Amino acid sequence: xxxxxxxxxxxxxxxxxxxxxxxxxxxxxxxxxxxxxxxxxxxxxxxxxxxxxxxxxxxxxxxxxxxxxxxxxxxxxxxxxxxxxxxxxxxxxxxxxxxxxxxxxxxxxxxxxxxxxxxxxxxxxxxxxxxxxxxxxxxxxxxxxxxxxxxxxxxxxxxxxxxxxxxxxxxxxxxxxxxxxxxxxxxxxxxxxxxxxxxxxxxxxxxxxxxxxxxxxxxxxxxxxxxxxxxxxxxxxxxxxxxxxxxxxxxxxxxxxxxxxxxxxxxxxxxxxxxxxxxxxxxxxxxxxxxxxxxxxxxxxxxxxxxxxxxxxxxxxxxxxxxxxxxxxxxxxxxxxxxxxxxxxxxxxxxxxxxxxxxxxxxxxxxxxxxxxxxxxxxxxxxxxxxxxxxxxxxxxxxxxxxxxxxxxxxxxxxxxxxxxxxxxxxxxxxxxxxxxxxxxxxxxxxxxxxxxxxxxxxxxxxxxxxxxxxxxxxxxxxxxxxxxxxxxxxxxxxxxxxxxxxxxxxxxxxxxxxxxxxxxxxxxxxxxxxxxxxxxxxxxxxxxxxxxxxxxxxxxx
Amino acid sequence: xxxxxxxxxxxxxxxxxxxxxxxxxxxxxxxxxxxxxxxxxxxxxxxxxxxxxxxxxxxxxxxxxxxxxxxxxxxxxxxxxxxxxxxxxxxxxxxxxxxxxxxxxxxxxxxxxxxxxxxxxxxxxxxxxxxxxxxxxxxxxxxxxxxxxxxxxxxxxxxxxxxxxxxxxxxxxxxxxxxxxxxxxxxxxxxxxxxxxxxxxxxxxxxxxxxxxxxxxxxxxxxxxxxxxxxxxxxxxxxxxxxxxxxxxxxxxxxxxxxx
Lengths: 558, 260
Description:
The structure holds 2 protein chains of 2 kinds.
Chain A (H helix, E strand, L loop, with lengths): L1 H10 L1 H6 L4 H23 L8 H21 L1 H4 L3 H23 L1 H4 L2 H6 L7 H34 L4 H29 L2 H29 L7 H6 L7 H12 L6 H25 L3 H10 L19 H9 L3 H16 L1 H11 L1 H11 L5 H10 L3 H18 L10 H5 L5 H32 L4 H22 L16 H23 L3 H23 L9
Chain B lengths: L8 E10 L2 E11 L4 E5 L6 H8 L7 E6 L2 E2 L4 H7 E4 L11 H11 L4 H14 L15 H13 L5 E5 L7 H16 L3 E6 L2 H7 L2 E6 L2 E6 L1 H8 L3 H8 L5 H10 L4
Parallel strand pairs in B: 3-8, 3-9, 6-7, 7-8
Antiparallel strand pairs in B: 1-2, 1-4, 4-5, 9-10
């Protein structure tokens, strides 16, 4: 498989050379990177520890998830009568999906610290390094891409078998566009900020970009009239010229529908030109001095300023310390709470991986209010009549899963020997303290804000629902903790976190939360019943919490 | 070689700052080929920073840094081709085996595959890693990793070697082995730029010692010259120069912290 991929890459060698890369070095780097990717999975399936096939499972989950969403979107190709319009929607979703995967799972590949010590001291040009990164991501994504497009290809085989080669070309271009856009923006940021600030900037950028993508995806259907969506409307609307999926769809319009106009040809060539010119731009202008910038990032020595603290942070008077006193009741738990509190507030790698995954929350917020017809006041009124506060309630559940699972990993994971060598009788109390810190920092504040917003819009009648919500998502958080958080926090390298698993796990959580929400929906308006159920759920939380807190060393997954 | 060889390493007025922190303060040094330079100093003196600049990894400095006639700022790639660099941090792609890793590194230096395979086997054998050629490095001890790192810095036969704490984690026998190796390499005309705070090693193998303190060259010369000037072993010289001699009092102070 690896050799096959490398051969495909080698086919384009003249092009890579044109971009200024050394193809021998390029091959060597890609070979090693792909080898390491495959090792990562093998390391788990070798079964060193019993029952730790997690990474592999996550990989399978990721492929299945892509297959599923590919199917869901492939159906568009059947039901939207105008096939070019269907292509616009399909590739919009496709590109969003791939951009999400890159951002949430691939930042560590784009900024691999080890490269600084292994690649940079060698005579490798910046262009070669940049190109190898882009191609690595591209090759890695191709697995998910194949899963994603299979349903569409099957559908096309029945409806328009001749369109399949065109479709594959479109997929290739769309994928290249996404990789280039994300890479280009990263490199641009690397150029315009100081290295010391880069990591901060990029985490804000990631959050912003995630929000933008969600916004775009929700707004794209609003841009056009969804029911009367047809290619004529798309190609006559200048706004749509700015949307890359439209460029990709134009290829279909030209080749399959033989609809050759200035607009379609320009848009289709725009997609090709952007790909070629984009690769050139990324490999030459943006990659200039990349290695030095990278080195500076990993050195990252802000001599003064953000690195300094007030010195209060370890004392009981700091925010974390005071919260720890409220929420914990043993020395170990308290220590774990304060330790985790500081880690999750300061660790860039943690923030970088966690915040983007939470970026969609504000979008839901906005989407709920702008959705619907009529003036803003009318929409608010119709909002008040519905039960959409349930969405508000269960949004906070998402605040549990990603922050929790990410807290198992760290760049400096080896530092966890401190915990392993400490005389802890029950690591469970350490884990419980860490769990509480995460819940208090992420889930609780969001939930309280949602509660306030919910009460502001719907009035006091939703109080019981928010009480039940608190109980259910607490149970959900405990459940996730017991299932996924049964290790010492910050003791695993990020590479153990399957690259595709992040997003897939979120999807799984969405499903569970959906079930909770559905049950809740049937209880709405039955206040007594709701309060009774809340009590039951709250009581169910106790044994869950106890089993988390009483985790013993043998029960931990190393 | 012609009669008047180019200096292997030249630093003129080399300065470097991180923000407000002046790490290097106008360093002037000229090093001839075939020398082993012991670049020593206490923690945070600026040793690793100097090496990173000379190895072409940090172009953000003032003054001049020239390696074998090439200005590092102008053409870091040319410098990287000539030198071998063993960083202080032992980062490896540790899911690979040593052979795979060295094959990778060799390829980056455009070495033919056959040469790489032969050399890396021989060199790993030299360090006693023959039984581990096909083991993944994530199972390796710190010393074993350090050996692989050393081989990765040497295998392309560089003219100039930058070694940053190259002996960390090595056992006594390996330390002797490496010292001997460095002497032989220097005898062949290679330049070794050796960074360390372990003075006892440096005093034995270096032709010339450069003592760095707070980003400036505090003293330099041959070991016996320094000895004549300051007496006794390097360690004492070192503590005299850096102005902290009363270790006994300090140790007592440390112990008093146990008394609550």
